[in-house]
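FAQ
Q: What does a multi-component entry look like?
A: The components come first, one per line:
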Amino acid sequence: MKPFELLDAVALPIEQANVDTDQVLPARYLQKPRANDFGQFLFRDLRFLKDGSEEPSFILNREPYRASRVVVAARNFGCGSSREHAVWALYDYGVRAVIAPSFGDIFFANSLKNGLLPIVLPEDVVADLLKVLVAAPGSRIGVDLAQQVVTAPDGTRHAFHIDPFPKHCLLEGLDELDYTLSQMDRIIRFERLYDVVMPAMP
Amino acid sequence: MKPRTLYDKIWDDHVVEEQPDGTCLLYIDRHLVHEVTSPQAFEGLRLTGRKVHAPEKTLCVVDHNVPTSDRNLPNPDPESTQQIAYLAENAKLFGLEYYNEFDKRQGIVHIIGPEQGFTLPGTTIVCGDSHTATHGAFGALAYGIGTSEVEHVLATQTLIQSKSKNFLVQVDGKLPDNVTPKDVILAIIGEIGTAGGTGYAIEYGGEVFRSMSMEGRMTVCNMSIEGGARAGMVAPDATTFAYIKDRPKAPKGAAWEQALRYWETLSSDDGAHFDRVLKLDGAKLPPLVTWGTSPEQVISVNGRVPRLEDIADDNKRRAAERSLAYMGLSGGEKVTDIKLDRVFIGSCTNGRIEDLREVARVVDGKTVNAAVNAMIVPGSGLVKEQAEAEGLDKVFKAAGFDWREPGCSMCLAMNPDKLSPGERCASTSNRNFEGRQGYKGRTHLVSPAMAAAAAIAGHFVDVREWR
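Then the predicted structure of the entire assembly, as tokens:
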């Protein structure tokens, strides 16, 4: 994972609530090996027509939004399927942060493991951001993870929460697995004790 | 000791290490692996030369990609073929138990775990699939994970997790005839919304769940994620123990007795704290049908599709406008006037033997409507075998249903089973999202009995009045 850097980028407004991971990445692309650019499948059925041409009304196909690296979405973004491919699609497209009032739990966890920062801000703040981004296409949003601050297009700063461990991993570009592997002795000790207490659970 | 919930107890028993901020290293007892969300995880292990830490706690099966037609015919999709072959190869390389598409134990991952006795009360169970909460029916802490976490579990048999809050959903009363577990969970989702359970582990309690079969409890827990909760569970009881006893992987002899003593402690203590409580009266629930593209958009079978002008909440009205357009509905239609092109009976929600018995009861001696293409996909090879031993397949075929091989099938359209654009389907699966069952396909979620009756009538009917 690459370290998470300071962001100052065009932001894409998604006003629809409950955008599920089937919308972010339809199931028929789950067979593709990771070596593919999953960015091309991002919002596939909303973004493209059956013949492969662009759906002109979809917001990501409008010029200033094409360069988006931040997504601002209504509540419960990324609900539904556990497919990490949805995160890969956003990341490969170039998105590094998603701001919403709430997220699907599994999508939230998957994002943190792939260098995509999910940021929870209050519903009214997100509603205001959405209005600005729709009214002024191409508006930029700043994200400073170290300081835990989002900067709105008008310069207003909004603090956000993130747990210390995933923050550390994102900033340093660390893989959780490396950390846990350093704890294997502890895990093996747990297993020995556990096997005594719970012999019925081999 | 402070009173604890069922979730608290299972959590506490599995904490390997807790950080000052509450982040825990949680031990995982059971890992189910399928072909779609595991390739990159195995690739990660291979690239770093790592091993699977506890191969005996891992069970692999193919389900998402496999066609449900004759298994001896070649898979038409080369990428699916490749994913299936890769799982077989990885199972061999890492020494993992694997059920391939010719094994009669093969089936949907959430159906085969319980069948084999791999799913046990008090265990932590994960799988790279959001419907893993199904196993919570046994009083296990079970939830879906992403591919990075699949690799993490393979390598360390643990996950780094923060604890969820506790949510009690209590449904008392006695369900009316022909109102099923599927209607119960759809009613709960309709009540709390698709984000209502976000950040929570749900415990389903009350008379309705106590008197429910294991199959029914699995249907309910299965759709916890549709209400936003990663995990849903029911405390184990005599029904649970009777289901598990003598399953191939269940403890035997003295180990069984010892396990029982532990399992009997697995219920929420009196006075345990729940952060949220929802109570419903089971006796008042009707059969339900989803009319939109979110599982929370449900309505009674004898109701009407909502009209936009009747929806007060701005957000809900905007969502409904989009859903109605996608579903080809204008609002105000009677649910029983909605005509169907397809019926799909199966999936990890409703692909078990009890579901198939329900369907057989409804369709016995009747004929599928000429305008409807109706398919029944058993959840596993063992479900198929049992159904055939009971003669259910003959009832289905005589009525004109297509009786197929086990797999995920048309629940998610990543195999040859899918809807064509515009086709309308009554489905016993779990998601009615746009495109879920095929590009531009239209899905109405219902119980097996409702789907069966709709297949015969060609439109929805109130199964309570079915003769």
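Q: Is there any commentary attached?
A: Sometimes. For this entry: The longest helix of chain B spans residues 78-94.
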